[in-house]
Amino acid sequence: MVSKAKKASILAILLFICIFSAPSEVSGQKLSKYYTSALLESGTLYFILPLDDFQEKETKSRLIFDISYLTGRDSVTINFSYFSSSSNPADSLSLRSGDCSTTCRASKLFIDVENHQKWHHRFTAKLPFSGLACFFNAPLPPEIIITTQDDHLIYRVRKGHWKKQGSIISSIIQLIQANS
Amino acid sequence: MKKLLVFLIGVFILSGCAMVKSPLTGFIYSDVKAPFAVTSNTGADRVGTAEATSILGIVALGDASIDAAAKSAGITRIHHVDEHVNVILGVYAKYKIVVYGE
Predict the structure, then answer these.
(1) Which domain holds residue B77?
(2) B28 and A77 in contact by Cβ < 8 A?
(3) Which of residues 52-111 of A touch B (CB under 8 A)?
(4) Of A105, A149, A167, B28, which is least packed with CB atoms within 10 Å of its CB?
């Protein structure tokens, strides 16, 4: 027979494990959830895992992008995916926030079709590390603009999401700078 | 006693639902990174990922192939590959492949 006290203590232990193993968004220890790093011959390669909080206002389509940075280099690589009804490829990628504005040429990785009306565009772009740091340090939600032959796709992030995401990525950038 | 037994069986059944191959098993929560493959190629400046998810072991979707991960970053020479496993209470499982290369 298991007494009520024993049952309560088992439940308390389970609850304790759940609380302390549950992912916490604000915990500094959980920063590692958002990036990976690999020590290579030429330096340390940092990779910020894909982010998908930016959304286009009209079509509600999301921009998914990840960031790679090899220490010792001036530029970072952004690989990004966007979804559009047009098959026209992207020409450039712009990051705008407050006083910071960085524009770079976009190079095609591949274009895929998800259904008859939705194209998946996968592109890559290189931009200065300082531009990226400035972008993620912005207190106000910034914009990411993709320019195609016939359109400007403007992606914005919600203020609440940016407060969390901006501070996480900014902390990772500080960590990279401290280790460079 | 009977209720506790039912509870434990329930937890056991749930934790066995959405499973994914992993070097370690976490009964309640699992978040494990592990090596998957290494090549003799030197140098890497790009990283690509691909993932697949399972819900309750009933539905599993995604393309977590090395090819998909390499393609997502335009990698043609692979340096090494890691895997990342995330399981929550056997309800939700995610398997991610991370490819490093150039």
Answers:
(1) 2-101
(2) no
(3) 66, 68, 70, 73, 77, 79, 81, 109-110
(4) A149
What's the gap in Å between the CA of A111 and the closest CA on chain B? 11
Angle at B19 between CA B18 and CA B20, to 5 degrees: 130
Q: Using CA atoms, how far apart are residues A66 and A46, in angstroms rounded to an integer?
A: 11
Domains defined along chain A, listed by start: 33-179 (2.60.40)
With an 8 Å Cβ cutoff, is A115 touching chain B? no
pLDDT in tens, B56-102: 888 999 999 999 999 999 999 999 999 999 999 888 999 999 999 99
Name the E strands within B39-77.
46-55, 59-62
CA–CA gap between residue B69 and residue A108 (Å, rounded): 16
**Predicted TM-score (pTM) of this structure:** 0.80
Tell me whether B44 touches chain A (CB under 8 Å): yes
CA distance B58 to chain A (A): 23
